[in-house]
Write a structure and sequence with these properties.
CATH class: Alpha Beta
Strand order of the largest sheet: 1-3-2-8-5-7-6-4
Number of helices: 8
Structural class: alpha+beta
Number of domains: 1
Order of helices and strands: EHEHEHHEEHEHEHHE
Shape: globular
Oligomer: single chain
CATH topology: Alpha-Beta Plaits
Distance between the termini: 25 Å
Length: 249
């Protein structure tokens, strides 16, 4: 894993945009081919509804056996709170700051469009500000849906994640790292528009990578246990979900 430059590790986002992510639970009878086709159609539908300068993209959960292997690597790295991948599909819409209304409008009826391939009541919407700390893209995306600890304020959760936890997470070699900080009312509006049932996820860690071996190597870093322990200062691990998706063209 290659390192990043010192200028990339200032702890300040390089870009801030508005974003909605739909985390989609596949129905038991849906095949991967059906899910892949439906997700691509949904992303194009959203793109067509967005104004210029806004983008939509879809992703499908990686092969379950491969995901299980990567999650087992997380366990071998000192954490035991990931029982299974959280979701099997993803559609996002993103645009400049202040464009939440356009994004929420564009995802209208996505659950109906996806039909029987998803379980809408257990699928989620996360809407807020997408803060790019370490830029970059890749064919795979890790989505770590997190909620704050019981009793913690909204401000503590977001401030600790943004200002303190980045002091550790930004020193992971090769990290292409973003934080999606949810705004409660925006997530609720996005869920209602899309037709999904969950809107209480407080944020998503998002990072791009090239293959699942990267995840395995990450767990072998000397500071990986420290990063995990630091998460306990703001994340309720019992209510966190982790998903690896293959981004679709």
């Amino acid at each position: 894993m290659s390192g990043s430059t010192c200028s990339e590790r200032s702890g300040t986002p390089t870009t801030v945009r508005t974003k909605v992510v739909l985390l989609l639970a596949a129905s038991a009878g849906a095949s991967r081919d059906e899910l892949r086709s439906s997700l691509s159609t949904a992303a194009q539908h959203v793109q067509d509804a967005l104004p210029p300068g806004h983008t939509s993209r879809a992703g499908i959960g990686v092969d379950p056996a491969a995901a299980r292997s990567a999650l087992d690597a997380l366990g071998s790295g000192g954490r035991d709170d990931f029982g299974a991948p959280g979701y099997q599909g993803m559609v996002w819409a993103t645009g400049p700051g202040g464009s939440m209304d356009a994004l929420v409008g564009a995802i209208d009826g996505v659950a109906d469009l996806l039909g029987d391939v998803i379980e809408p009541l257990t699928s989620a919407a996360v809407a807020g500000t997408d803060e790019v700390f370490l830029p970059g893209d890749g064919p795979l995306l890790g989505l770590y849906g997190i909620r704050r600890r019981p009793g913690d304020s909204y401000e503590h959760f977001h401030d600790f994640w943004r200002l303190e936890h980045t002091k550790l997470s930004m020193h992971i070699p090769g990290f292409r790292y973003r934080q999606l900080h949810a705004v409660g009312y925006a997530s609720e509006q996005a869920a209602a528009s899309a037709g999904v049932g969950v809107h209480d996820i407080d944020g998503c860690v998002e990072y791009f990578f090239d293959d699942l071996q990267y995840q395995v190597e990450m767990t072998r870093l000397d500071n990986f246990p420290e990063i995990y322990q630091d998460e306990k200062n703001f994340i309720d691990h019992d209510r966190a979900t982790f998903t690896y998706v293959e981004l679709l063209d």
